[in-house]
Amino acid sequence: MIISPPFIPVPIAGETDEAFVNRAMPGGNLGDGAYPLSFDLNWHGGLHLRAPQENGKNLPVRAIADGTLAYFRAPAEKTDDPNNALNYGDGWTDNGCIVLRHETEIGEGARSQVVFYSIYMHLSKINIANPQLKQRIYRKDNIGEVGEIYGSAGKIHFEIIASDTQVEHLTGRSTRELDYRTRDGRTDSCWGDMYFYVPSTLQGFAAPPSDFASPTITGAVSFSFPALPAGWLTPSGSPSGLAITTTQIDGYRPEMVKQMQQGLIVRMRYDKGQCQLTTYHLTGELIGSQSEEADFEYNLYTTATRRYPACPSAGYELLRFGRVLGPDVLQPADAAHWRKISLPPRTEAGEAERSAWFNLNAPGVTRFSDADFPHWMGWRLIDDDQDSDSHCQSTYIRDLLEPPSLYAVQLPRREDAVSRAQSDAYDSMPEGDKRRLSEQYMDDRLRNTTYLVDATAKGTLKRLICKFPTEWSSEDFKVRYGWLTKVAEGGPMSEDDFKDLKKHHEALAFWEDSNLTDIDKKHWQFPPREIISIFRGCGWLTANEFAMTFPKHMFYNTNSNPITPITTNSDTYTISRERAKERIARHSPSLNKVIRKYLGGNKHRISIFLAQTLLETAQWRDLGGSKRLMHEWGFGAYSAANPATQFYTIFYGRGIMQLTWAGNYREYGNYRAFPPNSTTTYTERRPNTDARLTPTSQHYSAHPNNNGSLFTWSPRFDPDIIGESPYEACDSGGFYWISKPFSEGININRVADRPYSPSNIGLVNRLVNGGSNGYYERQAYTVYMLRSLTDSVDTSREVTITPPHPKHPIRANMQDPE
Question: Would the pTM of this model clear 0.85, i.e. be above it?
Answer without folding.
Answer: yes
